[in-house]
Amino acid sequence: MSLLIIDGNNVMGARPRTRWWRDRAGAAATLRDDIAGADLDAERVLLVFDGSPPSDSAAEDGLEVRYAGLDGCSADDLIVTLVGEVDDSEVTVVTSDRELVTRVSALGARVEGAGAFLRRTGLTS
Question: Which residues are within 8 A (CB) of 113 and not within 5 positions of it... i.e. 6 or more apart?
Answer without folding.
Answer: 94, 95, 96
